[in-house]
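does this look right to u?? FE2/S2 (inorganic) cluster version
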Amino acid sequence: MGKKERMDKEERKRRMNIPRQKMPEQDPRRRKYNSEEVPYGFSEETAMQEAQRCIKCEKPLCIEGCPVNINIPEFIDLIEQGKFIEAAWKLNEQNALPAVTGRVCPQETQCEIKCVLGKMKGKEPVAIGRLERFAADYERRHKSIQTPAPEKPEPSGKKVAIIGAGPAGLTVAGDLIKLGHEIVIYEALHEPGGVLVYGIPEFRLPKEIVKYEVSNLEKMGVKIILDYVVGKSRSIDELLNSGYDAVFIGTGAGLPMFMNIPGENLVGVYSANEYLTRANLMKAYLFPTYATAPIQSKKVITVGGGNVAMDSARTALRLGAESVIVYRRSRQEMPARIEEIHHAEEEGVEMNILTNPVRIFGDDHGRVCGVECIRMELGEPDDSGRRRPVPVKGSEFTIECDTVVPSLGNKPNPLIAMTTPDLKTTRWGTLACDEETMETSKKGVFAGGDIVTGAATVISAMGAGKIAAVSIHEYITTGKVTKPKKEEKKQKKRRKKKKDKTE
Amino acid sequence: MSEIKLTIDGQEVTANNGDTVLEAAQNSGIRIPTICAHPALEPYGACRLCVVQIEGIRGNPTSCTTPVQNGMIVDTKSEDIVELRREILKLMLSGHTSPCFACSDRTLCEKYRPSPTKSGKASRCTFCSFRDSCELRKLADEFEINEFDLPVIYQNIEIEHNDPFMDRDYNLCILCGRCSRICKKIHGRGAIDFINRGKNARIGTSFHKKHTETDCNFCGACIDICPTGSLSDRFAKWQGAPDKYDKSICILCSLGCSIDLKIKNGKMIESGVVDFTPENRICAVGRFAIQQLLYNPLRLDFHQVRVEDGLIKDSYENAIDKAAEELIKYQGDQFALIAHTAATREEIYLLGKFAKTVMKSDNFAIAKPDKDKIIIEPSSVLEKIKNGTVKAVFTTGNYPDSTLIEKLETLIIADMFPSENEKSAKVVFASAVLVEVEGTFLNAKGEIESLSAAVTPPKNVYPDWKIVCDIAGKMGASEFAYSSIVDIGKEINQEGIQEEIPTAPVPSPINDVNALPKYYRGHKLAGVVSALSIFSPEAQAVKADIIPEELKSTVEEKPFEIVEKKEIVPNTYMVSVYAPTIAEKCQPGQFVIAMVNEKSERIPYTISDFDREKGTITMIILEVGRSSREMANTRIGQHLAHFVGPLGKPVEIKKYGTVLCAGGCYGVGAILPIARAMKEAGNKVICIEEASSHYLLHWEKRLADNCDELVIITKDGSAGLKGGAQDAITMLAKKEEKIDQAYIIGCTFMMMLCCEVTKKLEIPTQTAMNPIMLDGTGMCGACRVSEGEKTKFACVDGPFLDGLQIDWIELMQRQAAFKIEEIEGLPQVPIEKSPEEHFCACSHT
Ligand SMILES: Cc1cc2nc3c(=O)[nH]c(=O)nc-3n(C[C@H](O)[C@H](O)[C@H](O)COP(=O)(O)OP(=O)(O)OC[C@H]3O[C@@H](n4cnc5c(N)ncnc54)[C@H](O)[C@@H]3O)c2cc1C
Ligand code: SF4
Ligand code: SF4
Ligand code: SF4
Ligand code: SF4
Ligand code: FES
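got this back:
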């Protein structure tokens, strides 16, 4: 059924009465010991069934909710018709990493919250994220099926350097290579993907998927240079002087925050970045085949309530430890996705809400042996609109443990800003940027993703990448950058408002 | 035998005719120091430490070779004798890697370095795996040797890392001949012996063959008898000295050899021969494989039960419940039990009893390894699985083979390693095995031997016999409630069961490495103990594709080629890598992060030199663990998988006045670019090179050419001044008008000592931090260092930080964060020496 045709009442009703399809998941008792992905994904039948729930709204609000404006009803319609590969291509038009976003996007606060169906009484929204994941997975699994090679665009003779192979950088690369520009990505680590490879764990996002998506970009002609730290190996100015017409900075927010409490340098206190990087990027779970040592603990206390904290706490279980989360606000305030909190609890992560660590105790060898915490209660709302937690006097108590993982979020790495004098930063250390064009204060230099917003989400980084790609294209072909038209502006505003709170 | 009376140290002593004076003394509780003597060996008189004075005999005879005579008056403790022994010992130590004895910082050093550094070569005691057990070291301490008249020498003998199990470093050999004598005694023919004569005498194989090409049986007796760190078990060597000894039986083949166990913290470190006699010799599997099986990374240490989508880890109790619940459905001919021969009598008996009385089935089979395959007998049991009669199997190993597994409805496994069969199993128990189990063993001679549970199994892991008893109990059988293993033994005797005496393997593994046991519980031993693959050609194929895979990432067209590599002094390598972008940019004080292959750690190395024209970066690498070993074992022409830099902040080069640059270990290289730049900036530059001994000095000329004054200082005083860098600083401070700035690079201990001095002298001091790093770009915080009140990330704020404010103790503790994993992670694969490796006089340039 084409989307333009109006759907008759009967059909609408039928569709509305199909229940939201469940996605099977690995048994929590089993999965907490392995690094296999937790949800199994839709089968072809359930996907087609779920796709039938979409009522093909005239004004599909879901699209507005999507930071990269995926044409949601259209790709869902293709799934409904069994045209799974075509559905994946539809996704690809707007989204270079659908298998990734289908897994890690907070759909419940983006597209799905807007879904017209979901607003009706007693109805749940269409499972847009799961359908997105399904189509992308289907395409990857059936990669043998001939996909028409994308037409090689006419080379433009322009060259763009992208710094950082995270979702922002990869998105810019994908969009610009399609326009015939020569693209080189410089990545500091030894694998491309940014947080997708070093932070988000295998059980949530199999690394094979990231590899596949990156290899697609490489097939399109994107060149990725690993082991290259911009600001050290070359500065931005040197890149601009060596023949690049523009530079995009997508270096993320990779500077871990600590709590600044006594005992934080004891052996056994690891930033979430270290804890997760050892496990993910360095494959410490395959030690000693891989050389990086895993962190073997008896009891791990993760401090924080965001996605990063959930990932650390669940990784701790998989490393064979008891896992406890300590979070200073209440559960409602936890910035993590509800699904992730739920998964963590299901697997046996103990939640200590309204609790804050005060100091960490160590033994004679300087190794962690416990954490003193204090109970909190909620006071007046703060800047973020959330009620400010205040300590309850005299409520201190100690939890014995041998590992503490502060997962308080990350700040941008100052390296590039430090080595590029004419690049303006904000007081949070992020790069100052025109939010509508992603231009920085330096001519020819654009930025996007966590380096601009502070730690946020994969999809917002990709959204910023899309805007930047448009601006960069205009800049290198015409020499100037114009602001988007009004109606597009509106959307961008919304996006800005939705910036994730991380903790 | 007639008795002989003599006097030793004024004490009346009786001895047997034919005893030596040494034996007579030892039998009467008088200790005479020895090193070449050993109770299992004939007197030899090589080390001469056991010299004594005997009235009426001229000179100082060696007590180990002098037979007792009636009325002899022996003095073992006179001042002259003690002095003579000290001289003998000093002579011995001067041909040894012993500078630590003459080091005045030794006590502090050992306090801050409680276990020796896991180096590739022992260049001194702090770098020697045998430090805590060494007989030579104990003697040196007993004789309070802390200075040498003759300089110690490093003999520069190639280390043998190419053996499947042993590392041999004859630089530590004191030529006591214990190893060659024991080998001859035990095997009748010696695989090793003295080769060369006189000054060049040393131990080795004939024609320098590899041990795998000689008669060596890998019984390990030579390792166990060697008084020094020369000969070691690669798997065990870094575990330190045992805290407990015990005995047990190796049941990996029907011979059931007696073994000695060295135990630490309840874990077995090594097994070995019980008494160094030919009769009790053991094979390579008994000597080297047991601990590698027990502490194998693949070992199961949890129980699993099946839920809808797979196996889940579960408690022992739940696993028992689930097994009982499954098995109760299959009583009678539908059930079969497959056990294996490498089990105690009690286990075999109980498994049989379980099949018969609880499961009411006659289908009890035993899997026996037979050369290269496994035979399950009686074969009728397999037939019954094949034709569908048997629907449920309980097995204590990787049986039956996968084609038969499909026929089963239920499979319960008790095993120590995972297997393909697990995919069909309803319950998988982890079993306590081998020396973790108490019981008796019927060997091929028909003797019953006992095993003690000498070693603790992993938590909540129990032996097969207990698993079966608990399942039986759950199924309501009352006759399985044994209070101890002894009761089971009694029951076996009461029942008067006819036990089949197993046949001895032919040829015997203790004579022939090709006849070594190949299976345990149906798992190929070579599959889990990789070193054994050397002896089984089919497994060698596996190894063959492991090695190229490691190098694979380096085969592609990639940068980071190693253009120069040399071992400049023992255990210290100079590696130059082609990396033009880094070479173009790098500044003194910066570092790089290298990964030799895709599985490596990301390891930081200071840039010791760079050549912008050639595009090369030079690093000085001390081999002290797995990752630096990977680097030490690279070859010229190989490409590193990853190489990133320059990282960290450069040092601030400007005119300070007088600048002091002190380097020790790898830091000698690292101060070079700083010294050069400081001199170019118009400073007066004084360099200090510290080393334990003269044979560890390198790059003196390069340094001298780039500074105004070079001070050499060695811990043993064998070259330059005697002492540590901190002593040189004190000396210079007296001499110089003013020292405006100091840069210190070396091990943490050395930097700490230097900073104590510069703090007193109020010299601003920058030290190169060397904490554990992960990314090296400021992303992880692993490299946190406390500088005064502040926490710094050494990779981005450093590596140079204010040495006067560093919390050194915290730094050392943080560096030791993974010390257990560092040992576990050391590779066990033999390493062939690389052709370009040699050191030469040019290390001094
Ligand atoms: C553990 C964890 C879980 C998360 N879970 C979710 C989730 O479920 N859903 C979600 O939407 N978001 C999640 N996020 C947030 C999300 O991953 C980030 O917002 C997103 O990755 C930002 O993308 P980016 O491209 O801006 O930066 P990054 O992904 O951080 O990539 C930046 C890249 O730039 C490289 N780089 C940095 N400096 C340099 C330099 N000087 N030169 C060269 N390269 C450089 C870095 O090595 C890195 O590869 C999570 C974050 C973490 C840490
Ligand atoms: S809002 Fe919901 S129902 Fe409407 S088009 Fe989007 S997904 Fe379909
Ligand atoms: S063998 Fe090792 S521990 Fe013993 S003295 Fe020599 S270097 Fe020191
Ligand atoms: S290797 Fe050991 S046992 Fe053999 S001669 Fe040398 S020191 Fe003695
Ligand atoms: S391992 Fe045994 S056979 Fe081999 S050299 Fe040593 S003592 Fe001789
Ligand atoms: S090594 Fe990770 S921050 Fe320094």
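Chain B touches chain A through 54 residues (CB under 8 Å). idk if thats expected tbh
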